[in-house]
Amino acid sequence: GNSVTQMEGPVTLSEEAFLTINCTYTATGYPSLFWYVQYPGEGLQLLLKATKADDKGSNKGFEATYRKETTSFHLEKGSVQVSDSAVYFCALSDHTGRRALTFGSGTRLQVQP
Amino acid sequence: EAQVTQNPRYLITVTGKKLTVTCSQNMNHEYMSWYRQDPGLGLRQIYYSMNVEVTDKGDVPEGYKVSRKEKRNFPLILESPSPNQTSLYFCASSSAGTQYFGPGTRLLVL
Questions:
Q1: What's the pLDDT score for residue B24?
Q2: Distance CA A65, CA A58 (A)
Q3: A22-77 tens-digit pLDDT
Q4: In this predicted structure, which of A46-55, A86-95, B94-103 has the lowest mean pLDDT?
Q5: Which terminus of chain A faces fewer neighbouring Cβ atoms within 10 Å, N or C?
Q6: What residues in B contact A43, CB-CB < 8 Å?
Q7: CB A20: neighbour CB atoms within 10 A?
Q8: Of B38, B43, B50, B95, which to mutate for an interface test with A (greatest number of A Cβ within 10 Å)?
């Protein structure tokens, strides 16, 4: 079956530091890949997505590249802000009729001023 | 504003007392889904619906029911809640392969 593995958190960074959150996946075929963000007390928001190999998703300074050869979709940001503190979820969808998203367990990011 | 709404946002109940969590979307999406979020497990799909009157089980359907009588609404029904259904629940609707989530309903079953 499908699975998504994310690096364990929490990740604690100082403001303006470089961020990488690793995500690898196992799936049949060619899934679509997503990063969702959950701010404290809020629901999930789509951060970015990529639908085919070598696609780069980007939004709000965050980027992730769909790497089929390494089955990875690592999230990066060049300079984090305190407002980026949240839980980040990597997820995949395998285009079956069920369209269920398979989520990683989430990585909490804490950015200190 | 395009959105998915859920009610209530917070609910405390007792074992065996039937409850319904409502979900509504204003984006005219055909596909809707329910997930539960538990610590260390991420989100798992409970039920989904491809269109009106078409529903099917997800990964963890036991103890839940759903209905889809109209396109915009997809209520989640717990006929006899138990403590292991204490969780954070999210409704989602989908278009073009991307799912959009509601704000979540935090349920505590005593």
A1: 97
A2: 9
A3: 999 999 888 999 999 999 888 899 999 999 999 999 999 999 999 999 999 999 99
A4: B94-103
A5: C
A6: 90, 101-104
A7: 10
A8: B43
